[in-house]
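Inverse folding, one chain.
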């Protein structure tokens, strides 16, 4: 059998966030990846809308990733408590929009 060289690719920002979301929601298969990626895009766009430029520039930030996870939990009505996750998401998003590390205008 011939040797096959494996390519070790660096994970992309999108795959890092997707992995974090799937871990947080205890999802082990890939069946929902398209839906989860749509939620991730929505969260990042919503964060950009309120001035969190790091949502574009630094998607490896644990705070940005955590904010996206909260958004997806809200959209998925995680634990049957969507309002809880909506409130936490909005608080974190708004807090990030005020921080100089995450908002170019600060």
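Residues assigned per position:
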């Amino acid at each position: 059998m011939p040797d096959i060289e494996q390519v070790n690719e660096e994970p992309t920002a999108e795959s890092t966030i997707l992995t974090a979301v799937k871990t947080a929601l205890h999802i082990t298969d890939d069946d929902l990846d398209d839906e989860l990626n749509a939620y991730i895009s929505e969260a990042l766009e919503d964060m950009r809308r309120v001035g969190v430029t790091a949502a574009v520039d630094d998607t490896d930030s644990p705070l940005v990733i955590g904010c996206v996870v909260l958004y997806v939990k809200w959209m998925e009505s995680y634990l049957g408590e969507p309002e809880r996750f909506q409130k936490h998401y909005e608080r974190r998003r708004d807090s990030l929009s005020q921080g100089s590390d995450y908002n170019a205008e600060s």
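The two ends are 59 Å apart (CA to CA). Confidence is low (pLDDT under 50) at residues 1-8.
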